[in-house]
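Session log. Operator J.P. requested a structure for one protein chain; no other inputs attached. Running the standard single-chain path with token output.
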Amino acid sequence: MDCSNEELEVKMKPSKRRRTVDNNGVKTQHEEQEDQQKAAVDVSIIMPVYNASCWLDECLQAILDQDFTGRMELSVFDDASTDDSRKVVDTWKERLEGRGISVVISGHNSDQPRGVGHAKNKAIAQSSGKYLCFQDADDIMLPQRVRLQFEASVLHSSSLIGSRVRRVPEGSTERYTRWINTITQDQLLTQVYTSHGPTVIMPTWFCSRDWFLTVGCFNEESKGVPEDLIFFYRSLRQGGLVTRVDHCLVVYRYHEKATTHSVKEETIWKLRVEFLQERVICNWESFTIWNAGKQGRKLYRCLNTTNQKKVKAFCDVDRNKLNKGFYTYEDSKERPKPKIPILHYKDASPPFIICVKMDMTGGVLEENLNSLQLKEGVDFFHFN
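Structure written below.
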């Protein structure tokens, strides 16, 4: 269930201004407007907090060290922390406000946290900035983050803006980190179906409040729901774009308590298959699944009946699979049961859905794709 946008929209409405005259000793309407413009918040840093006390000093110091010269605000929502997270944030309030960063803190003391989607929505609702900078309490923003992403967001008002990251501990998710930092601008849109999730990761997101309101609130259903992926796909459905600032702007921490570990792989799989069918496969008359193994067959079984009929072949390089000649869909209610040919990739024809893990074949997959002179986003899409 997604929250209502009414609470957020109130924040976007300009406040009413009195008409006054100079000779009454009261500021004119023009002067009031100028004062309000000076006081307007440019960027709200949106920070949900749950049991993050051990990381908050580093996180908040990094906010204090931002080189952005506009008006900033920190909006914190404490999602029923059982440690002293709230106390730590309170101790930083004076220092942040002394730097000109206004601080809004709220939360709840229920027996159970209500989830990161709920906490983000609450933090946004109580904030007032024209732009939103999403910050995880266990991560660290580098000094130029707000400035560079603000500049990019002004130019790309209907985009989710991300950045490159540095992962700590170093090497903890080597392949994933390399993917985050090296995919091209075009691949930010073509690789949205892979198991990595959003092509710009949530801890680096920055966008205008207007665009957030267009897309709608984060999903608040329950623990284990990938609210970032759901929002990301909804943003794309609304015609939004994806942009990355090609600088490392966030130190992205890996640890076992991270909320991402609570999301089930099968939940993400279903969302990906649905989006792939909606955005890609529905536009094709037929296609080939590249991988006749476990993942390729699973994708086939998860397609709707109409799209299963569009699969003209599997392709592979494994001799054992090729020697079988075809894949029989045993669970099908059709009689006779569908038998899908298994071909060598050189004998198969595009378009392809690639169900082979990227960066796991020593470059062989990439060489094979290049040998066929295929264009990503037209002739093939990565799914794994």
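Operator note: The radius of gyration is 24 Å.
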